[in-house]
Design a protein that fits this description.
The complex is a heterodimer of chains A (about 110) and B (about 110). Chain A is built from no helices and eleven strands. Chain A is mostly beta strands. In chain A, a hairpin with a 4-residue loop joins strand 7 and strand 8. Chain B has about 110 residues and is mainly beta. In chain B, strands 2, 4, 5, 6, 9, 10 and 11 form a seven-stranded mixed beta sheet that branches. Chain B has a four-stranded antiparallel beta sheet with strand order 1-3-8-7, with no helix packed on it. The model of chain B has no long low-confidence stretch (mean pLDDT about 95). The chains are: A mainly beta (about 110), B mainly beta (about 110).
Chain lengths: ~110, ~110
């Protein structure tokens, strides 16, 4: 069973538009949720991390929310740029013997067109 | 900033051959990880290590071995490569698993 579900699977927006990516998960316990950006053919780069119930974070044009009760997170991208074209991956961390076990979503493929 | 490098970046191997993927990190992180990324799946953990000399099985270790000869280096070894191991492989390092820094990936094709 998929423990981290992301939607939509893919999304096309025009440059300058806003978009919202969703992440629902069933990982228990969950101690943090992180959003990564993966450019085509590249590694994962962390955008933001959410830790507490009802956390909200902001990193430039990226902002995220976490509802731990609902096990749901959103990533908002405002005023999209062509360089925002990438796969966005939601990752949930669970405590595991002093470290963290990460469960990855499949990603949302975002295409920003002129 | 964390620096994780992988080599080779691209590799074509034949079925039954031996493949070694290498990873190097320069941040003195204790933990290192090997994942594979396939269409339709999130990244899946193959092996990980808590320090030099240690290796642990992840979620999908079958067909893979790992080696951590030093703090900086972590290798993934496919003794008998199979076409099902065609994938993109990512190495990562981190202090506690809370934050992981990823390498650029190695694209492996097994013919």
């Amino acid at each position: 069973k998929t423990q981290v579900e992301q939607s939509p699977q893919s999304l096309v927006v025009r440059q300058g538009e806003n978009c919202v990516l969703q992440c629902n998960y069933s990982v228990t316990p969950d101690n943090h949720l992180r959003w990564f950006k993966q450019d085509t053919g590249k590694g994962l780069v962390s955008l933001t991390v959410l830790v507490h119930e009802n956390d909200k974070t902001s990193n430039g044009r990226y902002s995220a929310t976490l509802d731990k009760d609902a096990k749901h997170s959103t990533l908002h991208i405002t005023a999209t740029l062509l360089d925002d074209t990438a796969t966005y991956i939601c990752v949930v961390g669970a405590p595991a013997g002093g470290n963290n076990k990460l469960t990855f979503g499949q990603g949302t493929v975002l295409s920003v067109i002129p | 900033e964390a620096a994780v490098t992988q080599s080779p970046r691209n590799k074509v191997a034949v079925t039954g051959g031996k493949v070694t993927l290498s990873c190097n990190q320069t941040n003195n992180h204790n933990n290192m990880y090997w994942y594979r990324q396939d269409t339709g799946h999130g990244l899946r953990l193959i092996h990980y290590s808590y320090g030099a000399g240690s290796t642990e099985k992840g979620d999908i270790p079958d067909g893979y071995k790992a080696s951590r000869p030093s703090q900086e280096n972590f290798s993934l070894i496919l003794e008998l490569a199979t076409p099902s191991q065609t994938s993109v492989y990512f190495c990562a390092s981190g202090a506690s698993g809370y934050e992981q820094y990823f390498g650029p990936g190695t694209r492996l094709t097994v013919l």
